[in-house]
Design a protein that fits this description.
This is Homoserine dehydrogenase. This protein is an alpha/beta fold and 408 residues long. It contains 14 helices and 18 strands. The radius of gyration is 23 Å and the shape is elongated. Bound molecules: NADP nicotinamide-adenine-dinucleotide phosphate (NAP). The site of NADP nicotinamide-adenine-dinucleotide phosphate has 24 residues, from helix 1.
Length: 408
């Protein structure tokens, strides 16, 4: 029986998970591919560290040694940083290998080049693990929604932020206490900036945009806001309205261009994101034939991420040519209606004489208001202390027991 030879770059949480899964699921690979899958080499940084791998696996810190192997079919990348990763993957494609990556920062920056290079070299690229860990969202968009026209994608794409928001609400903790808890549990790095300031979710949103809409928005135009402005007072005020804060990335096509935002929003009980708690991720895909699909599951971790990568291994081995069909038909969301239509917002820091319609002062200094986004953006431009959060879906005004709105 012929063999597919694989190299794994990195033997940390993800790389080791991939290695162990290839060993434990050998039978399934053979049944699906009709070939054995063998790990020929593993790239690591520190050669002194003890690793539990078979003796016939080349364990090296020199990528050139891997490229020189007599047979190499797939390179699975699970290291960190944009470089030397991008260089390694370009060389792997040049050598005629399919590549699979989990590295979202690198892929958000260089995915386009890698996909183009792969096409020229007639190999495939798997990048399921770059977005939402174990949830098969890329393959769903790429393989299972080929005819549907996507209008909107929304996602809770960063487990650390979702964990912090959940802890703050459930345990009535401050942001700082919940962040510390996330670090103690190993969910947040010592420097959590990428997670809590929304960069990680931003990179994932850009990757999703490319697969769903065939292009990305101009990165400078994307509203990116992390969760550091969310206070215990805001969480309590939201709870009074039976709403929960979620950090959501959204991507759509409006007025002929792709528009994206990554920011905290409020969701009610009827929204599937309301029940997505802790480190879980979820993605809503809105499309014209099927309507809304919600995919939910583990956004990180050894085996969920390995699951995404080994399913990609099957995908790249079965692809007959390079990357295909990534430009999809999409549906426009009307630009004029968005931004100008009145919506409900939870707002902190409004002063008197703001001229906005206040439905209720939910807590001291925190109001539920009705306004268009355009007017609120204008007001916030004049009063920089204001923070405001949109509400996805309906607000049940009955729970407020208010008879009339007032202008403040
Ligand atoms: N952890 C998750 O749940 C998760 C989920 C989705 C995506 N990802 C992405 O997957 C990638 C790997 O994450 P991880 O959590 O597995 O990281 P990790 O545990 O820190 O492991 C990184 C591995 O890469 C090796 N490495 C790092 N730089 C290298 C270099 N320049 N040359 C050779 N080897 C190098 C390290 O070698 P040594 O062992 O010798 O130090 C280590 O084995 C990252 O891009 C991450 O964003 C992770």
């Amino acid at each position: 029986m012929s063999v597919i030879k694989v190299a794994i770059l990195g033997f940390g949480t993800v790389g080791e998970g991939v290695y162990r899964t290839i060993q434990s699921h050998a039978e399934e690979f053979t049944a699906v591919l009709g070939k054995k899958v063998e790990v020929a080499a593993i790239l690591i940084k520190n050669k002194q560290k003890k690793r539990e791998v078979r003796e016939d696996v080349l364990l090296t810190s020199d990528f050139e040694e891997i490229l020189e192997l007599p047979q190499l079919d797939v390179v699975i990348e699970a290291i960190v940083d944009k470089e030397p990763t991008f260089t390694y993957l370009k060389k792997a494609i040049g050598r005629g290998c399919h590549i699979i990556t989990a590295n979202k920062e690198m892929f958000a920056h260089y995915g386009k080049e890698l996909l183009e290079l792969a096409k020229v070299n007639n190999v495939s690229v798997g990048y399921e693990a770059t977005v939402a860990g174990g949830i098969p969202v890329i393959q769903t968009l790429r393989q299972l929604l080929k005819i549907n026209r996507v209008s909107l994608i929304q996602g809770i794409l960063n487990g650390t932020s979702n964990f912090i928001l959940t802890e703050m609400r459930e345990k009535k903790q401050s942001f700082a206490e919940s962040l510390q808890q996330a670090q103690e549990n190993g969910y947040a790095e010592a420097d959590p900036t990428n997670d809590i300031e929304g960069f990680d979710a931003f990179y994932k949103a850009m990757i999703l945009s490319r697969i769903a809409f065939g292009e990305e928005p101009d990165w400078q135009d994307v509203e990116r806001q992390g969760i550091t402005s969310i206070t215990s007072e805001l969480i309590t005020a939201a709870e009074k309205l039976e709403l929960r804060f979620k950090h959501v990335a959204s991507i759509s096509r409006e007025g002929g261009r792709v528009v994206a935002a990554v920011k905290p929003v409020l969701v009610g009980n009827e929204n599937p994101f309301y029940h997505v708690e802790g480190v879980e991720n979820a993605v809503n895909v809105h499309s014209d034939i099927v309507g809304r699909i919600t995919l939910q599951g583990p956004g990180a971790g050894m085996f969920p991420t390995a699951s995404a990568m080994i399913e990609d291994l099957v995908y790249v081995c079965q692809s007959r040519s390079g990357e295909r069909n990534i430009v999809k038909n999409t549906v426009e969301i009307s630009e004029t209606s968005k931004g100008e239509q009145k919506e409900y917002w939870l707002v902190q820091g409004l002063s008197n004489n703001s001229g906005v319609t206040c439905i209720d002062e939910v807590s001291t200094g925190i109001n539920l208001i009705e306004s268009s986004k355009k007017d609120l953006d204008l007001l916030a431009g004049q009063h920089p202390g204001i923070c405001y959060f949109s509400i996805l879906g309906e607000v049940d005004l009955a729970i407020l027991n208010k008879e009339a709105a007032t202008v403040i």
